[in-house]
Specification:
The protein is α+β, with helices and mostly antiparallel strands. The protein has 15 helices and 22 strands. The strands form 5 sheets. Strands 3, 4, 12, 13, 14, 15, 21 and 22 form an 8-stranded mixed sheet that branches. The protein has a 7-stranded mixed sheet with strand order 10-9-17-18-19-16-20, sandwiched between helices. It has a 3-stranded antiparallel sheet with strand order 7-11-8. The chain is globular and about 65 Å long. The chain starts with 17 loop residues before the first strand and ends with a helix.
């Protein structure tokens, strides 16, 4: 990956139990305590145990898993604590009557550079979307295609009402613009809200409202497109280089693959950290952690906090309120017979009408047939916001009414509602100003990681986990040398 190239790459050759610098000095990563390091989890039947381990990672979402992966690759003992019953954090999949229900609208972009390093794409059996979208506007569906992938489709769509000919040319020029920039240049560039960037570029109100607002609004869970232009450019570049895809076994297959590669016994599930004790913050000792069950753990090498930003702020006792409201979403799933699906293409549908509550939807089994039983289709519908003033039943009824206008009432009335997910923390808010190169170190022996620190993407979470480990190892080396 070219993102964050300024960070030194630490490997077992230059950081391990015995390491050598270019001055041939011997460096030892000594634990702060006298007890030997242990990667074994504490016994959960002890109500007030006191255990020590190498590095403690809090949270087994993508960031925490990435941190654990890099610690494992350096042969550094660690313990990964997860409050729930499985890895993944927000990247989870539920199983219901033969259907795979991802918790919220989540799409994996194959061109994510950090993901390409950490994941085995072939094993994920990625199922690809059409590179473009179908936009519902003025009672009809119109194609918007990626000109790099579907040139003729893009050419045939030049006259449709989802933007002018100039808009289509500006999309092509915008692709060239982001492809000529490195990822680091994008992440550190001057930033403005995405909506301001689109207007500054010269895009018309029609293509902003009918395509960019539902498409990128659905990615950012931000219909106003206030998200940083840095994030827009990074995702725009990844979309130009790669495909939107879903793992055949659900989005949870991504964190599961990372978790399966970690040493046995290194993940402790149903282990919620309720407090971090900073009484040793003036010394060089990392803090101790208290679990919900009363267990107390102390790390000998450092603590990596890899939970969602609101929870991280609580654990780190940050009293200043976060001025940016988090991004929220509602995702509804429906099923129908596969013979009743009105389209066969693996395409994303966008609401470009400017009306209604549906932002985007797709037939998940068109993309990945394994998302449902052989004779059934799975439909995923995404809304932006929480809609607290509407009940689940009212939301379902409104979605069915709206999509009846898209595909016809005789087809949509046959859909069976499966489940509704209301996701109060879908993404961090990354409207300007952002600092996407922030030092992960927040205290003596304490480091943070998560997509809120870099980019609100799968890739951002993975990069942040690596950066936290690199910062920890740099600090351990400098401590040992001094």
């Amino acid at each position: 990956m070219t993102l964050f190239l300024s960070l030194p790459q630490l490997s077992p050759q230059n950081i391990h139990i015995h390491a050598h610098t270019h001055h041939h000095r011997s460096i030892r990563l000594k634990p702060q305590a006298s007890l030997p390091l242990s990667s074994n989890p504490p016994q959960s039947n002890q109500s007030s145990s006191y255990s020590k381990t190498g590095v403690i990672v809090i949270g087994a979402g993508l960031a925490g898993l990435a941190a654990a992966t890099h610690l494992s690759s350096q042969n550094i003992p660690f313990l990964l604590l997860e409050a729930s019953d499985a890895v993944g954090g927000r990247v989870r999949t539920d199983f219901l009557d033969g259907f795979l229900l991802d918790r919220g609208f989540q799409i994996f972009i194959t061109a994510y550079p950090e993901a390409q390093k950490l994941l085995n794409y072939q094993a994920l059996n990625l199922q690809k979307f059409y590179s473009g979208a179908q936009v519902y506007y003025d009672g009809k569906l119109h194609t918007v295609a990626n000109p790099l992938r579907h040139f003729w489709d893009s050419l045939n769509s030049l006259q449709n009402p989802i933007g002018s000919l100039l808009d289509k040319l500006l999309i092509a020029s915008n692709i060239i613009r982001v492809l000529t920039k490195s990822d680091e240049e994008i992440i550190t560039s001057n930033e403005i809200p995405t909506i301001d960037l689109l207007r500054k570029t010269g895009f018309s109100d029609s293509i902003v409202g009918r395509f960019f607002r539902p498409f990128f609004g659905g990615i950012f869970f931000d219909k106003e497109l206030e998200t940083s232009s840095r994030l827009f450019d990074f995702i725009f570049k990844c979309l130009a280089l790669g495909d939107n895809a879903l793992p055949a076994n659900g989005i949870a297959a991504i964190p599961q693959q990372l978790g399966d590669k970690l040493p046995p016994g290194s993940i402790l599930f149903n282990s919620k950290v309720v407090s971090i004790d900073f009484d040793g913050v003036e010394s060089e000792s990392p803090p101790s952690l208290r679990l919900e069950n009363g267990d107390v753990l102390r790390s000998e090498l450092g603590v990596i906090v890899a939970v969602e930003e609101p929870e991280a702020r609580k654990l780190l006792r940050e009293t200043k309120p976060n001025p940016k409201p988090v991004r929220t979403t509602v995702c509804l799933y429906f099923s129908t017979d596969r013979t009743q699906v009105p389209v066969r293409e693996p395409v994303l549908f966008l609401n470009g009408s400017g009306k209604g509550i549906v932002n985007n939807m797709f037939f998940a089994t068109n993309v990945a047939p394994s998302y449902g039983p052989a004779d059934k289709a799975l439909i995923s519908v995404s809304l932006i916001g929480m809609f607290e003033d509407m009940s689940d039943d009212d939301l379902t009824a409104e979605v069915v009414r709206e999509l009846s206008g898209w595909f016809g009432e005789p087809i949509v009335r046959l859909w069976k509602h499966l489940r509704t997910y209301r996701i109060g923390y879908a993404q961090p808010n990354q409207c300007p100003p952002t600092n996407l190169m922030k030092n992960p170190r927040v205290g003596s022996g304490v480091y943070v990681c998560g997509d809120y620190l870099i980019s609100a993407t799968f890739d951002g979470a993975l990069v942040s986990g690596r950066r936290a480990v690199e910062a920890l190892l740099r600090d351990r080396v400098s401590t040992s040398v001094s």
